[in-house]
Amino acid sequence: MDPVPVRCLLNSISRYLHLVACQTIRYSPIQTRIGNVVHLLKLLKPFLVEVVDCKTPPDDDCLNSGCEDLDSVVNQAREFLEDWSPKLSKLFGVFHCELLLEKVQTCSLEITRILLQFSQSSANQTDGNDDLDSIIQMIGLVSNQDLLKESIAVEKEQMDQLIDLVSCIREHMLKTEFLEVAKGISTPPYFRCPLSTELMLDPVIVASGQTFDRTSIKKWLDNGLAVCPRTRQVLSHQELIPNYTVKAMIESWLEANNITLAVNSGGDDSSVANNMGSNDFNRTESFRFSLRSSSFTSRSSVEAGNGFEKVKINVPASLSKELEIFELSSQEQSYTHSRSESVCSVVSSVDYVPSVTSETQSLPVNHQSYSEMSSGTMMTSHTIKLVEDLKNGSNKEKTDAAAEIRRLTINSVENRVHFGRCGAITPLLSLLYSEEKLTQEQAVTALLNLSLSEVNKGMIVEAGAIEPLVHVLKAGNDRAKENSAATLFSLSVVQVNRERIGQCNAAIHALVSLLGKGTLRGKKDAASALFNLSITHENKARIVQAKAVKYLVEMLDPDLEMVDKAVALLANLSGVGEGRQEIVREGGVPLLVETVDSGSGRGKENAASVLLQLCLNSPKFCTLVLQEGAIPPLVALSQSGTQRAKEKAQQLLSHFRNQRDARMKKGRS
């Protein structure tokens, strides 16, 4: 069976999650309901991937029907986001979101029920888990440190069967136990060290590409062990590279849940257990957990069932740049959407998934089981095979390899670093010149995922990425153009890359062309990339000369849903004389005054900044701004806007008064 309805649903979920990552709805009740929908879909998604990856997927009409129903609801939710405007009724928006949330809950529960029935007819996974629980109790693995010591001791004995057993115990603990860091709050499994199962306070990457807590892996290495505890791969070196992204995610999660870990005062253990008070643990360094059976391959279907039935979600404020959307493992969870508009307004953890067509259906979903690969367990032979296919394979093999790398790097920070180091970047760049549009699209999307890693950003540019990405911007299909612009945005986070991209006039002209003629998603990606480039002063004039201002002024129309991005970029471009001249020449003043009057908080702030630049640098422009009736909305903004907006409005009003006083004084004389 080729589970086409499941593939279609996965595609729709990925598109929706990416759209949520880029949405700018500021109304909290709607945000909360969107967060709840995202949480449910992210709980369900791994199980759908298991179905697609399964060698003998369930041939069930009920499952297909359920997936088709949920696919329809997800598309309705996506259309709501795409059509949303601050001018629409907020009551209607909340009511509509509530209906969509109920439909998602109902459909998700039905799909989960069907998958549970299928899992119960599969191999006796539950019995295996019960056996592991008995072994854990029998040998007295009651703490994180006990598990770490046992792992090291067994490894020294070099008995493969025992090593495999302890490895299974570690994976079992990560999947089925709750490690509480505070009362009622459990640590997400992907924040726990695969070696000790503790919360990673100082995550580091080893030579195999896996991430561990520094204290645990250092003990492992200090005992003379030179293989990766998880992949069994011989480590080519023992350098420990800080994983700043995961560390930032963990710190943000702790902050979002109001958790403060006490600093360890002594000893050589920096374990979480040592940082907890006695109230959080039954006894020193002991686990406090509840076991859950895992009955659908390697993931717990019971967890998903409970998650759908008992869900309570908050939507905390944005936490930090370039963090991924992620779900928290406890029953009462937080949906954390981390996003900085000035630094990361396009790239998210969810990449674009091509629509299911006759071409994409024929792509292999995977070369190895998802439960092994998505967790970061990269097999060297598998990686080498993919890179070799990129270089020397047939057209189909190249496309398949690019698609597989894209899939494996959607959510895995470790996999991004791993593929970057294994030589995937250069052959992926060569595929950007492919005449096969699907190959080109898969390659640029894989590069977009790789570019999210700080380690890879410099490597991609050094490999000569700018010209191939420009080629895609000019000759690719709509999706490829969008992802090429998003990749340039991601790379331009680094200052030296901003300078190099800006020096390529073709890159700026191609982005401006997409800004004016691309899809809505393409326009947003281009605007974000150009915004980053405009941070470098020399690039401002280049962007103006490429005729970007004309398109940006057109985007100040609220109906186009681009006001905030357009006015943010105009605020940067108004810092140069050419930019100010073009803003006035293209008729931007009336629309900027309108934005100060009725735009979003950020839009008002940036519009006031542009008007201030115009007025401070030209009495003629100042008169034009006054003629457009700017004083009333500026007075209102000076009293009720953001702090920065208030300052800009007050500066403008003060400038107007000074200009008036100067004219009056001149008239008297």
Automatic annotation (TrEMBL):
Gene3D superfamilies: Leucine-rich Repeat Variant (1.25.10.10), Zinc/RING finger domain, C3HC4 (zinc finger) (3.30.40.10)
Protein keywords: Repeat, Transferase, Ubl conjugation pathway
Transmembrane segments: none
One Pfam short name: PUB2_N
U-box domain location: 186-260
Domain of life assignment: Eukaryota
Name assigned to this protein: RING-type E3 ubiquitin transferase
Highest classification ranks of the organism: Eukaryota, Viridiplantae, Streptophyta, Embryophyta, Tracheophyta
Pathway the protein contributes to: Protein modification; protein ubiquitination
Catalysis performed (reactions): S-ubiquitinyl-[E2 ubiquitin-conjugating enzyme]-L-cysteine + [acceptor protein]-L-lysine = [E2 ubiquitin-conjugating enzyme]-L-cysteine + N(6)-ubiquitinyl-[acceptor protein]-L-lysine
The keyword Manganese belongs to this UniProt entry's keyword annotation: no
InterPro entries, per database record: ARM-like (IPR011989), ARM-type_fold (IPR016024), ARM_PUB (IPR058678), Armadillo (IPR000225), PUB2-4-like_N (IPR057314), RING-Ubox_PUB (IPR045210), Ubox_domain (IPR003613), Znf_RING/FYVE/PHD (IPR013083)
E.C. number(s) listed in UniProt: 2.3.2.27
CDD domains xrefs: RING-Ubox_PUB
SMART domains: ARM, Ubox
Keyword Repeat: yes
ARM repeats by residue range: 423-465, 506-548, 547-588
